[in-house]
Specification:
Number of helices: 0
Shape: globular
Oligomer: single chain
Strand content: over 45%
Radius of gyration: 13 Å
Length: about 120
């Protein structure tokens, strides 16, 4: 079992930055690729970013490319999502997820473990 806990969400203004963290605990000796997803009110959960176990492969949804950066520190069992130039349309609950595959990208059905989410609200 792996437990994922997100943190770092909050209320910010458009143009501000936030850094989300996702700390993994439990069976962290395995190699997990990680992903970030988000769900806005009334919308389905959607892909935001993904990173491979070694951190050598990343991917982003088009709407966040150039603004968001995903990274990881395996020594700390933590994955980060640096979010810059935030827009009101980034408002959502952000979830991190882990997969036992080397890399799963945007394929949500391949992620086995999910966190509880952290709220990000961007005011205009």
């Amino acid at each position: 079992q792996v437990q994922l806990v997100e943190s770092g969400g909050g209320l910010v203004q458009a143009g501000d930055s936030l850094r989300l963290s996702c700390a993994a605990s439990g069976r962290t000796s395995s190699s997990y690729a990680m992903g970030w997803f988000r769900q806005a009110p009334g919308k389905e959960r959607g892909f935001v970013a993904a990173i491979s176990w070694r951190g050598d492969t990343t991917d982003y949804v088009d709407s966040v490319k150039g603004r968001f950066t995903v990274s990881r520190d395996n020594a700390k069992n933590t994955v980060y999502l640096q979010m810059n130039s935030l827009k009101p349309e980034d408002t959502a609950v952000y979830y991190c997820a882990a997969t036992l595959k080397h890399y799963s990208g945007s394929r949500a059905n391949e992620y086995y473990y999910w966190g509880q989410g952290t709220q990000v609200t961007v005011s205009s």
